[in-house]
Structure formats: structure tokens, C-alpha cells
Amino acid sequence: MDNNNISQRAGQHSGGQVLAISYVPIQHADFDKVYDDEKGLVMGTIFPELDLPFLGSERSAK
Amino acid sequence: MIKTQNSARQKCMRNVQSASFAVDEARLYLDTHPNDEKAKKYFDKYNTLRKKALAEYEANFSPILSDDINAAKDGWTWTDEPYPWNEGV
Q: Which of A51, B16, B24, B61 could form a disulfide with B53 if both were Cys (CB 3.0 to 4.6 A apart)?
């Protein structure tokens, strides 16, 4: 089965992802910009690109 | 354990924890990016700081790891540390 056929069967989405396949893009960190140890421990990551606002609230509930 | 000693101990433990966290982060990154020169320098920096912080804590307070004790000479000292639920750090 060629790739085209698989995409048609699985349904293609924006960015070329197909259904039922999960993706973890490779990280390219800039170690000139990472946090020091103290800030890293507080934020839970030394990488600014992974320092995301995970807000636990009911806003996301439908 | 008296209060002043406790806060010095906590500060010392904080150094161990923060340096250990930075080492863990860099190690995970280097597992998939072993040729990142800056990441290797970051790892080395905090690996050194972590060893210093561990040595400082163990010299001033009590052992953290059982592999750092001298059992026959000093006794079974690594369990002397108060546990976290007993005001340990």
C-alpha cells in the first residue's frame, strides 16, 4: 500500500498528520537561553519553549 | 533540630535539589542530542555544582545517599536524617 493510499484512508489533516498516529516533534533547544538551576526547579523545566501555562480550571470543560 | 540549623539545612538541600534538577534536564536532552556542545557544558557545570552541593550537605548535616556513608567507621548514619514527614527536607 503506498503512502497516498494510506493518507486517503486515514484522512489527512492540516500539517499532514493522519488519524491515530501521535507525534512528538524533535526539540532543538538553545542552551544560551535555558534557565539556571533555581528557576528551572521552580518552573519545572529549564527550557523556555516548554515553560507553558498549564492552567487547571473549568474553562476547558464543555 | 533547632530552627536556625533547620533553615541552613534547607538552604543547603535546596542547592542539591536545584542542581540535581538541572543535571536531569540536561541529561534527558543529551540522550537525544549527544552532540550539542552547549548542552554538554551546561551538564558539566551543574554536575560539578551538584557534587559540591552534595558534599557540602553531607559535611555539614548528614548523608543523603547510602553509597556515601562509611558504615563500619561512622555507623549506619544515613538514616539519621529526619524523614520528610518528620520535618526533614
A: B16
